[in-house]
Amino acid sequence: MSESVLTLQEAADQLGVHYMTAYRYVRLGLMDADKIGGTWKVTPDAVAAFQAGSVRSPVAPGERAPWSERLESRLVAGDSRGAWGVIESAMSAGKELDQVYLEMLTPAMVSIGERWSAGELDIAIEHRASGMAMRIIGQLGHRFVRRGRPRGTVITATPAGETHMLPLAMLSDLLRLEGWEVSDLGADLPATSLGLLVADTPDAVAVGISVSSEDCLAQLAESCAAVRAVAPKLLIVAGGRAIRDDEHARSLGADGAAASCQQMSLLIETHLASLQKQPV
Q1: Which of 21, 88, 103, 243 is the most buried (most CB within 10 A)?
Q2: Maximum separation of any 2 CA atoms in the chain, in Å
Q3: Overall average pLDDT of the 40-54 stretch
Q4: In this model, does residue 64 exceed pLDDT 60?
Q5: What pLDDT, on a 0 to 100 scale, did the predictor assign at position 232?
Q6: Which of 81, 69, 76 minimizes the C-alpha distance to 29?
Q7: pLDDT interval class at 197 (50, 70, 90)
Q8: What predicted TM-score, i.e. pTM, was given to this entire model?
Q9: Which residue has the higher pLDDT, 217 or 50?
Q10: Same-domain check for residues 74 and 138
Q11: Residue that terminates a domain, selected from 38, 56, 74
Q12: CB within 8 A of 188, min separation 6: which ones?
């Protein structure tokens, strides 16, 4: 930080607003700031950028708010309270639960991952942002459960060696929103353990396996084989960045690929319908 960096009070003075108003701008991700030694610091460039395009209420009528960018700003800054404030503001402005995941949290974390890969962010910043994202999911999770009788039980997991939990956690919540009961087994699950759980879940209608790293594709194939061994007719759906398409998924032992919760839900419905048509 150079000596030209402003305190939040100095930034508020430049903007001609009360300190708490400037603080709200930061908390909502409208103005970039970093917390250094317990004090908010704002660069002159951040103040100028705010003055150039953001000096207004969070969003004008008919205009789309850059919610994912605001959330990303707070995640990178390590501002948990501010990140949650962005989520609450977006939902107050009409964002639905699935939109929070798909239009805010997902693009924010993808951008952070790309910035880390490009050397713009340290891995510690990416890890901290991931931890904050998981806490956001934890705070929102209970809202995804729909009332009424579940449509069936879906088991979700990542194969051994796969540590990316965020995609799996969001998929599980989105499936719950579609009316499925979800048994989320988390990341880095050995194939034998997945097979045991499937065998112990007679009402399961599908297994969803998420894999982000190509290094874990062999383990994905082992997981599919373990499921087949105990439940030959159970639908297996593969998804995640490492899965290219249906053909790729089938080559690894799955029945197909899904790039979204809606696609997976449709695959499950189609599979269940086909089973009902089969002779007993």
Answers
A1: 243
A2: 78
A3: 82
A4: no
A5: 94
A6: 69
A7: very high
A8: 0.76
A9: 217
A10: yes
A11: 56
A12: 158, 159, 160, 161, 162, 163
Residues in the chain: 280
Q: What tokens appear for 237 in the block? A: 């759906």
* pLDDT reading at 190 higher than 60: yes
Show the 3-state SS of the chain: CCCCCEEHHHHHHHHCCCHHHHHHHHHCCCCCCEEECCEEEECHHHHHHHHHHCCCCCCCCCCCCCHHHHHHHHHHHCCHHHHHHHHHHHHHCCCCHHHHHHHHHHHHHHHHHHHHHCCCCCHHHHHHHHHHHHHHHHHHHHHHCCCCCCCCEEEEECECCCCCCHHHHHHHHHHHHCCCEEEECCCCECHHHHHHHHHCCCCEEEEEEECCCHHHHHHHHHHHHHHHHHCCCCEEEEECCCCCCHHHHHHCCCCEECCCHHHHHHHHHHHHHHHHHCCC
Place of tokens 């061994």: 229
Cα distances (angstroms) measured from residue 207 to each of 28, 81, 128: 38, 35, 30
Which residue would you say has higher pLDDT here, 120 or 50?
A: 120
Asked whether the beta carbons of 238 and 220 are under 8 A apart, the reply is yes
Residue 113 shares a structural domain with residue 184: no
- Write the CATH number for 124: 1.10.1240.10
